[in-house]
Write a structure and sequence with these properties.
This protein is mainly β and 335 residues long. Strands 5, 8, 9, 10, 11, 12, 13, 14, 15 and 16 form a ten-stranded antiparallel beta sheet that branches. The chain is built from two helices and 16 strands. It is elongated.
């Protein structure tokens, strides 16, 4: 096996991104910007002989995809946070026969689901809700310890997959420690066009605070005693004297309008003591997807709302809908 000398640093071409750290950086670029955004560069000097050692970058596409997929999936998780429902409330109706108001509804409704009840013709409501989320897991893994391995691309140096192990077997294990907090302040306005038909508008203000720390460790391959050509790479695969250190970090925050929601709800009435309503919900791509405040596409969701009241104050709520993504059918979701 021949090593291609570069006359400079030995560069591990882990592709973490395509743009460098900027003063006004989007949150989507935090992870790709680590290590300068152009990969991890190790020392190119032999720690024993002092000779310059290096070879061309050669890392698998799977490594690049793994980092990009991590960044993409984190963005999807943040953008998909639920928005609180339009709050219910105690309501009264004027009884012309008694000449006074009577209590018609005590149940305040669900927190995240939607109620099947409508406001009634000419009635309107305005409300503000606040929600806060802090992540501790991502796809079942601890968000403070997400690991991506950087692997050599063997067929660049040695096209024989059955060849003895050499320094191409070395990998870099990168541990990401993320801290993500999201706050959403939602402004609701609903108006009863008819007794059984409501139109509503939801304007969310989303604040995202994100930081990421990373540590890269070199995992050396085990030497093959039966292969005299197998090399101990610990002398030239090292962070000592390298342009990049094994640790790096980045952080940022952003606040602005999220995806605005328009909805229409039609109340069918009572069926076996269950209130039923149908709805059409349109979520506009008004939020900045590069700062995790929006999905980057418009979605349309027909839905059915059901409510079974238990006494005067309690109720069981159920919502079922299918959300179509107008840009990417892969993102269609049963909710």
């Amino acid at each position: 096996m021949n090593k291609q000398l570069t006359g400079g640093a030995f560069s591990l071409a882990l592709i973490l991104g395509f743009c460098n750290l900027a003063l006004a950086q989007d949150l989507v670029d935090l992870i790709p910007s680590l290590y300068g955004g152009d990969g991890i560069t190790l020392s190119g000097v032999d720690a024993v002989t002092g000779a310059t050692i290096g070879h061309a970058p050669h890392f698998t596409q799977e490594t690049q995809s793994a980092v990009n997929q991590l960044n993409t999936q984190i963005g999807k998780e943040i953008r998909a946070l639920p928005i609180s429902s339009t709050p219910g409330g105690v309501s009264y109706r004027f009884d012309s026969e008694l000449g006074t108001y009577s209590l018609t509804r005590r149940n305040l409704g669900p927190v995240l689901g939607q109620s099947s009840h409508t406001l009634g013709a000419g009635n309107w409501s305005f409300a503000v809700t606040a929600t806060r989320f802090e992540y501790d897991e991502f796809d079942g893994d601890d968000i403070s310890s997400l690991i991506v391995d950087a692997l050599h691309q063997f067929d660049v140096i040695n096209p024989d997959p059955n060849a003895p192990e050499r320094f191409e077997k070395d990998i870099i294990k990168i541990n990401f420690d993320l801290d993500i907090e999201v706050e959403t302040y939602s402004f609701y306005f609903a108006y009863g066009v008819q007794d059984n038909l409501d139109l509503s508008l939801v304007v969310p203000i989303v604040s995202v605070d994100m930081s990421v720390n990373s540590r890269a460790d070199i995992i050396f391959h085990e030497l093959d005693p039966n292969d005299p050509g197998d090399e101990d790479s610990s002398s030239f695969h090292t962070f000592t004297g390298a342009p990049d250190g094994p640790t790096d970090s980045a952080s940022g925050d952003d606040t602005g309008i999220g995806d605005v929601i328009l909805a229409a709800k039609y109340h069918y009435g009572d069926w076996n003591n269950i209130d039923l309503a149908a709805a059409l919900v349109v979520k506009l791509e008004t939020g900045d997807e590069h700062n995790f405040r929006g999905t980057g596409s418009t979605t349309v969701q027909p839905a059915v709302y059901a409510e079974y009241e238990i006494g005067d104050f309690w109720g069981v709520h159920g919502n079922l809908g299918y959300e179509w993504d107008t840009d990417d059918s892969i993102e269609n979701t049963l909710r």
